[in-house]
Design goal:
This protein has 99 residues and is mostly helical. The protein contains 2 helices and no strands.
Length: 99
């Protein structure tokens, strides 16, 4: 069985569960316990939808994205003009050592 088949089976099971909860709700009313079961069933549906989305994202051919790109950092020193007002930057006060 493939992952897609497993996801489809879980989706069918959740549909069956939702129908059973609906029948139960009509028979005994919508008390707190039944509402909690309905809410849990809805959360399971949402979780399954998120799982399917994440699996679809990993199954696609990603190629090179901006997140995967390597950014070269040159070995040459930075322009000192970038640091003209940065004498107070860093940890601690001027006259003390960093922790």
């Amino acid at each position: 069985m493939s992952v897609q088949d497993d996801l489809t089976a879980v989706e069918r099971s959740l549909d069956t569960l939702a129908q059973a909860v609906g029948k139960l709700e009509t028979r005994i009313g919508g008390g707190l316990d039944v509402r909690r079961i309905r809410s849990d069933t809805d959360h399971l549906r949402e979780s399954l939808a998120l799982l399917k989305q994440s699996l679809a994202g990993t199954a696609r051919d990603r190629g090179t994205t901006a997140e995967d790109e390597m950014v070269p950092v040159p070995d040459t020193p930075y322009n000192s003009a970038l640091w003209t007002d940065a004498e107070d930057e860093g940890l601690g006060a001027k006259d003390r050592h960093a922790p």
